[in-house]
Design a protein that fits this description.
Blueprint: E1 2-8, E2 11-16, E3 28-37, H1 41-45, E4 56-57, E5 62-69, E6 81-84, H2 94-97, E7 125-128, H3 131-134, E8 136-137, H4 144-150, H5 153-163, E9 171-175, H6 179-190, E10 195-199, H7 203-211, E11 215-217, H8 222-229, E12 235-240, H9 245-254, E13 255-263, H10 276-282, E14 285-288, H11 297-305, E15 315-320, H12 324-333, E16 340-344
Parallel strand pairs: 9-10, 9-12, 10-11, 12-13, 13-14, 15-16
Antiparallel strand pairs: 1-2, 1-4, 3-5, 3-7, 3-16, 5-6, 6-8
């Protein structure tokens, strides 16, 4: 089959690779109908990954059709349309069964497409381990673009808002207005925020946030505007969706007394400066980490089905898988208003 293979920094190639096959009785094989490029894929694209590995298929957001099942698979059958959450669990331990695959006790690879250990989904097909658990029958009334966002981006935005304690009566700042940041703006209003400040250097992205009802700000003047707008109290809930040291520091500077800061932007640094004195003085709560997608789908699917959240509006580009190298370059450059890119095998 054809797949996008990571060959080195900024070197993604559309090449042949071995067809996926059943390796365990609980596996399924899925023919990919649509896959997405995530902002976190750029860390691999840039060569920032933690493991020294090349020659593997990348990507962790996909929907498709089951074409083969292992002998122990009981909930899915050939021909079923499925949504494949990015986070992977064993499906057997108590943490996975509660939806929290980040605490899986059986040492499975936690995400597709990070190395050869578990091949990615930017391909014509993929193996899904523990298929009954790691693939979800396509929900009724969900469009393909909505389904792609439900595999990772929307749950991550929701997770970020929950970790920031976004709720009724709270002020919110969202730093970084890519697809996930914009989804966090939308989710913040749904969760009851009274005012949302949306921060990004790109004017076009700020305009989208304004259309959602947010107060859109450039990073250069965000702190002063927020200080004036809140009479110096600053922000109750901050969602950082970039992962840069500068934006994490900004998140902490914008947080008021007893505020909550949620960092969902991926940061690959092994160490960074940390303003502990400010965190301590303001009594801040900081949370970070990867989203366990399946933990949030029970809430999110009905919200999407009923139009309370509209994540499909952030899908801006659809390109053939064969043009994957160009798609990555365009996504990396944030060219032409690109927010979310899907690839079509």
């Amino acid at each position: 089959m054809k797949a996008l293979i990571y060959a080195g920094p900024r070197d993604v190639r559309y090449e042949d690779m071995a067809d996926p096959r059943i390796e365990d009785d609980r596996d399924i094989v899925v023919k990919i109908e649509r896959c997405g490029i995530c902002g976190s894929d750029l860390h691999i694209y840039h060569g920032d990954q933690l493991r020294d590995d090349v020659g593997f298929c990348i990507g962790h957001e996909a929907i498709g059709e089951v074409v083969e099942t292992g002998r122990a698979v009981t909930r899915l059958k050939t021909g079923d349309k499925v949504l494949i959450p990015a986070s992977v669990g064993c499906g057997a331990c108590r943490y996975c069964l509660a939806g929290n695959v980040m605490q899986c006790r059986n040492e499975v690879e936690i995400c597709y497409g990070l190395s050869r250990a578990l091949q990615g989904c930017q391909a014509e097909g993929m193996r899904v381990p523990a298929g009954d658990f790691n693939a979800l029958p396509m929900p009724d009334g969900i469009t393909p673009d909505q389904a792609i966002t439900l595999t990772d981006n929307l749950p991550t935005a929701w997770f970020g808002c929950r970790n920031a304690d976004v709720g009724p009566g709270r002020t919110v700042a969202v730093i970084g207005l890519g697809a996930i940041g914009l989804m966090a703006v939308e989710a913040s209003f749904l969760l009851g925020a009274t005012r949302v400040f949306a921060i990004d250097p790109i004017a076009e992205r700020r305009a989208i946030a304004e259309g959602l009802g947010a107060t859109a700000l450039s990073p250069d003047d965000a702190a002063n505007v927020i200080r004036d707008a809140t009479d110096g109290r600053m922000i109750d809930s901050v969602v950082e969706a970039v992962g840069k040291e500068a934006t994490i520091a900004m998140a902490i500077r914008l947080a008021g007394k007893r505020a909550s800061v949620s960092v969902i932007g991926v940061n690959m640094s092994r160490r960074m400066d940390f303003p502990m004195a400010r965190v301590f003085a303001n009594g801040l709560t900081l949370r970070s980490g990867m989203c366990s997608v399946s933990e949030h789908l029970g809430e999110l699917v009905p919200l999407v089905q009923h139009g309370r959240l509209r994540p499909e509006r952030y899908v801006t580009d659809a390109m053939p898988l064969a043009e994957g190298a160009a798609a990555y370059a365009r996504f990396d450059a944030r060219a032409g208003g690109t927010l979310k890119t899907v690839l079509l095998p």
